[in-house]
Amino acid sequence: MQLRSFQEAADVPPLETDHPCFGCGVRRQAICGVLESDELKEFRASGATMNLAGGETLSFEGDPADNVYNLTSGLLRLSKLLPDGRRQVAGFLHPGEFLGLTMEDDHAFTAETISAAAVCRFPRSRFDAFVESHPHLERRLYALAAHELAASRQQIVLLGRKTAIERLASFLLMLAERSEEGRGGTESQVIRLPMSRTDIADYLGLRIETISRELGQLKAARVVRLVSTHEIEILDRRRLEGIAEG
Amino acid sequence: MQLRSFQEAADVPPLETDHPCFGCGVRRQAICGVLESDELKEFRASGATMNLAGGETLSFEGDPADNVYNLTSGLLRLSKLLPDGRRQVAGFLHPGEFLGLTMEDDHAFTAETISAAAVCRFPRSRFDAFVESHPHLERRLYALAAHELAASRQQIVLLGRKTAIERLASFLLMLAERSEEGRGGTESQVIRLPMSRTDIADYLGLRIETISRELGQLKAARVVRLVSTHEIEILDRRRLEGIAEG
DNA sequence: CGAGCGATTGATCGCCATCAAAGTGGGTGG
DNA sequence: CCACCCACTTTGATGGCGATCAATCGCTCG
User: Fold this and answer.
1) How far is the CA of A220 from the C1' of C6 (A)?
2) N or C: less crowded end of chain B, CB within 10 Å?
3) What is the mean pLDDT of chain B?
4) DSSP 8-class letter at B130
5) Is the model's pLDDT at A3 over the cut of 70?
């Protein structure tokens, strides 16, 4: 998962109203943002759009990585199972993000939808060929990979050294930052948690009971308010940041 | 830390004997491997070589990332401190690897030498300009970042879900794979551990006492033999792999 | 209204951290 | 060459955080 969405392309080329990607809400965030109208048309034609329900699997760990995807709506989960059933979630993918930042032949992680989602799917062979002839796209992929790498290393610090409550506080702040992105300042502060407690636990290296309990702590300390199971309001951001850093 | 060194460039251009990089032992592994003789000469001239003792700091977390480095010998450690002194090691860099896979302005991690080391240092501004005019270098950086990302996610699984002994077994196997790289098959199986127990512990999210004890377990089970403090022989690789996977 | 699944709350356990002490080895100076 | 020192590692005893086991709650849907 990334700390924040990667930078948007400096200037996103405008599109004709009959362009197949006209009206795509995530073009400026997605890798597509760096492509000119005609390049984008060719790119789009090399793939296909797909609509998925929640709980569907895009790719299994160990399977050959034959396709890459642009997520246009919904939420994806990247996870891995140990033989005995322990699960670790390596990250979540949000709309505009890209699935397929790898040079490996096989998927190392299972990618599943958490909610109903839509993707643009591209055969890897075609995608690679297209990238090869579009160096600015390659640059964007590098930037993406570098951002994901930075986020993964943050997660390594979290998993290696933070306590349960620190992990949870860090997680909430991460979501808060993400939700602030598009809009301006420090407004609403009500965070949506689209994923289940199990997903959160498997992402933070904890158990669902611990998530519940520590959320209870934050609530008791008046740092957050539980609007509903999947919505949390941050009441004291400063204190939450203090907790997150230990 | 990466699972394995990134792939070597398919064919590494030969150099004249008076080329400044002639005889560089890591050229084929390093990003330099994709550069032609004259490109490489220009590249080399844009930076400087440095020799470092063990325990020196190349860059502090939070400082501006003004330089990038190619490690030509020795071992680097990437780490981060929490305010109260807890430390997490995000990875180790081995000869031929590259320090500077980031789009951030500041270093997120402190980079220090573990042993005496040598690097080629390049000012970031010059490096970025050079990359921009050499797309195949950009491709290599992308491949590098993708590999580091895969390795980081492996580490996330390790830290999030594996037990102490599983972490240690995974770590030993990682080192074993790395040491097998250059050479052929499954020969010696004596692994060097250049880093201290503290470094290992901070990498695996454990304490040094736990490292010692679990190494003792592996030894008692005749899975490994402790040749010396910094050398371990793997006696039963299969069993070690079984332990690593849970 | 009842079934079923996810979330919460409670009681206890176990792995690894912490605190403490002894062992080891490499380097220095006498 | 050897004695000492200091840093690192190992080994031992105890404790705490989060896991596990278990029961209840609460919401959604049939």
Assistant:
1) 22
2) C
3) 92
4) H
5) no
How much is the pTM?
0.95
Is any atom of strand C within 7 angstroms of residue A197's beta carbon?
Answer: yes
* Nucleotide with C1' nearest the B164 CA: C16
The encoded tokens of residue B162 equal 């594996």
What DSSP state is assigned to residue B33? G
Q: pLDDT tens digits for B8-41?
A: 555 788 888 888 999 899 999 999 999 999 999 9
CA distance A242 to A238: 6
Tell if B211 CB is < 7 Å from nucleic strand D.
yes
Render pLDDT for B192-243 as a digit per residue (tens, 0 to 9).
Answer: 999 999 999 999 999 999 999 999 999 999 999 999 999 999 999 999 999 9
Which pair of structure tokens corresponds to residue B29? 């592994």
Nucleotides of D under 7 A from a protein CB: 8-13, 17-22
Residues of B in Cβ contact (< 8 Å) with A65: none
Task: Tell me if chain B has a CB within 8 Å of the CB of A39.
Answer: no
First-to-last C-alpha distance (Å) of chain A: 21
In this complex, do B82 and A157 lie within 8 Å of one another by their Cβ atoms?
yes
What's the rounded Cα separation, in Å, for the pair A235 and A216? 14
Q: Which of A108, A139, A142 sits opposite B153 (nearest CB)?
A: A108
Burial annotation A48-70 (CB, 10 A radius, 16+ → b, else e): eeeebeeebebbeeeeebebbbb
Contact B238, B169 (CB under 8 A): no
